[in-house]
Amino acid sequence: MKIKKGDTILVIAGRDRGKTGKVTSVNPTQQTVKVSGINISKKHLRPKRGAAGGGITEVAVPLSISKVMFMCSHCNKPVRLGSKTTTAGNKERICRVCKSTV
């Protein structure tokens, strides 16, 4: 999975198409990401005895990884990510358009 927590992404499919946001969590086994302010759903909560009363809260629901693209900070475009190994043996993510390291 090439998208990580803290990356800026663009949604390319679904009802939030065209919106950008930061990734708050990643689930590699299910191939999903949670993005702040995107794919918000309403959850109905029952009143609990110890906590505050119930009500309707908004919760971020995970998006499929296939519905998002990485936004490159150098060229400001949605891009695919590649990888290359440095001379020290470290693996770096690179932008496929402008060839800069991410």
Could you list some keywords that capture this structure?
102 residues, mainly beta, SH3 type barrels, 6-stranded antiparallel beta sheet, two-stranded antiparallel sheet, 10 strands, 0% helix, ribonucleoprotein
Q: For the residues shown, what is the average pLDDT?
A: 93
- Low-pLDDT stretches: none
Straight-line N-to-C gap: 15 Å
CATH class: Mainly Beta
Biggest beta-sheet profile? 6 strands, antiparallel
Backbone shape? elongated
Q: Which topology does CATH recognise?
A: SH3 type barrels
Q: Strands of the largest sheet, in order across it?
A: 6-3-2-1-7-8
Task: Give helix % range.
Answer: under 10%
Helix/strand-derived class? Answer: mainly beta
What's the number of helices? 0
Strand content: over 45%
CATH architecture: Roll
Instruction: Please provide the count of β strands.
Output: 10
What's the Cα radius of gyration? Answer: 17 Å
Number of domains: 1
Order of helices and strands: EEEEEEEEEE
Function: One of two assembly initiator proteins, it binds directly to the 5'-end of the 23S rRNA, where it nucleates assembly of the 50S subunit.
Domain KOW: 2-29
InterPro entries: KOW, Rib_uL2_dom2, Ribosomal_uL24, Ribosomal_uL24_C, Ribosomal_uL24_CS, Ribosomal_uL24_KOW, Translation_prot_SH3-like_sf
Organism: candidate division Kazan bacterium GW2011_GWA1_44_22
How would you describe what is shown here?
Strands 6-3-2-1-7-8 form a six-stranded antiparallel sheet, with no helix packed on it. A two-stranded antiparallel ribbon has the order 4-5. By secondary structure, it is mostly beta strands. About 15% of the residues are buried. It has strands at about 10, 20-25, 30-35, 40-45, 55-60, 65, 70, 80, 80-85, 90-95. It is elongated and about 60 Å long. It has no helices and ten strands. The chain has one domain: Roll (SH3 type barrels). InterPro entries: KOW, Rib_uL2_dom2, Ribosomal_uL24, Ribosomal_uL24_C, Ribosomal_uL24_CS, Ribosomal_uL24_KOW, Translation_prot_SH3-like_sf. Keywords: Ribonucleoprotein, Ribosomal protein, RNA-binding, rRNA-binding. One of two assembly initiator proteins, it binds directly to the 5'-end of the 23S rRNA, where it nucleates assembly of the 50S subunit. One of the proteins that surrounds the polypeptide exit tunnel on the outside of the subunit. This is Large ribosomal subunit protein uL24.
